[in-house]
Amino acid sequence: MKKIYCLLLSLSLFTTTACGQNQPQHSQKTKKTTMENTIQKPENPYYSNTDTSKLVLSDAEWKKVLPPDLYEVARHADTERAFTGSMWKSETKGTYYCAACGNKLFRSQQKFVSSCGWPSFFEQDNPKSIWFRPDNSYGMQRVEALCSRCDSHLGHLFDDGPEPTGKRYCMNAVSLDFVPDSAEKAAQLKTVVLGGGCFWCVEAVYQNLNGVEKVVSGYAGGTVENPSYEEVCTGRTGAAEVVEITYNPNVTSLDEIYQVFFTVHDPTTLNRQGADVGTQYRSVIFYKNEDEKKEAQALIDALNFRNVYPSKIVTTLEPLKKFWAAEEYHQNYYANNANKPYCQMVVRPKVEKFEKVFKDRLKNKKTQ
């Protein structure tokens, strides 16, 4: 929270807005968010695809958390039989991790199909992810490859690989976890639901933010299950027009999404955005957990502290119980109806303002 607070205190004011109020200027520095685990292993509390800190565990501790076959290979340098499983010949694009601790080791473009019967790579993804030591066991002189995070045995390194390195990382398949690119990307995507007046406006803005994968217009809050647009327009359902934003936290962040939110709409008018009046047009952030709630509240507190707006922010923070997608004709509305009067007079100014303030964060940067 402290980082968010300090970030907002450093924002200068953006004064040329459609309704003439002060707005926070986009910070050029985007907060980086660490990707969450793409593989979940509840039985192994030491497993992480993001933590690179050194693991020092006793043999007994490793035996408790590793499957027997992996334990024998990783901790006792056993070797699995060649040509077991399909990993040795797989050409699927993705990422390979240490099966014992989750440390990232290889990418699929560093892999080649060899005739040895074990997964083979010509280069490691990070020069520090694997370390080596001499192995003179079984009367042979070899180079053992070990995970740099947990010191687990992975396999051996040979000098008979392809160009450009001439190396062959001969790995035990049981020592590797593989995540295909599609699954890895899906695992890291996150969603946030928020409302800032008519959802046509909010949808059109976020569709252009780099890192946003999908925006769906819909409804949230209220007492009616899966309400229709006509029901929401009465103002009697308690539901708000909102958008569900699916984003990649490695490209954008919740903090940046909130910055856009407080830039392109007026969070100080209660149940109103311009001529759109009613509780369905309220400024609202629907949070899924306490962390999201605290981050939103920290931003609001900082904006109020800086007196960025002439009035206090009235944006409500409400727990997300259910999101309902709106009718199909509401989806991608601005792109499909850009010449209609409402889009020209209301939606377009918000999109243009967003493009001006966040010009460095557009999916397709416009030439200035």
UniProtKB/TrEMBL annotation:
Q: Which InterPro entries match?
A: Met_Sox_Rdtase_MsrA_dom (IPR002569), Met_Sox_Rdtase_MsrA_sf (IPR036509), Met_Sox_Rdtase_MsrB_dom (IPR002579), Mss4-like_sf (IPR011057)
Per UniProt, the keywords (alphabetical) are: Metal-binding, Multifunctional enzyme, Oxidoreductase, Signal, Zinc
What GO MF terms are annotated?
L-methionine:thioredoxin-disulfide S-oxidoreductase activity; metal ion binding; peptide-methionine (R)-S-oxide reductase activity; peptide-methionine (S)-S-oxide reductase activity
Q: Which PROSITE patterns match?
A: MSRB, PROKAR_LIPOPROTEIN
In this protein, the active site sits at: C198
Superkingdom of this protein's organism: Bacteria
Leader sequence segment: 1-20
Residues of the MsrB domain: 59-181
Q: Report the EC number(s), separated by commas if there are several.
A: 1.8.4.11
Catalysed reaction equations from the record: [thioredoxin]-disulfide + L-methionine + H2O = L-methionine (S)-S-oxide + [thioredoxin]-dithiol; L-methionyl-[protein] + [thioredoxin]-disulfide + H2O = L-methionyl-(R)-S-oxide-[protein] + [thioredoxin]-dithiol; L-methionyl-[protein] + [thioredoxin]-disulfide + H2O = L-methionyl-(S)-S-oxide-[protein] + [thioredoxin]-dithiol
Which cofactors does it use?
A: Zn(2+)
Pfam families with a match to the protein in the record: PMSR, SelR
The UniProt entry's GO biological process terms, in alphabetical order, are: response to oxidative stress
Q: Which PANTHER family match?
A: PEPTIDE METHIONINE SULFOXIDE REDUCTASE, PEPTIDE METHIONINE SULFOXIDE REDUCTASE MSRA 2
Functionally, this protein is described as follows:
Has an important function as a repair enzyme for proteins that have been inactivated by oxidation. Catalyzes the reversible oxidation-reduction of methionine sulfoxide in proteins to methionine.
User: What HAMAP family does its record include?
Assistant: MsrA
What family does the database annotate?
Answer: Belongs to the MsrB Met sulfoxide reductase family.
UniProt-recorded name of the protein:
Peptide methionine sulfoxide reductase MsrA
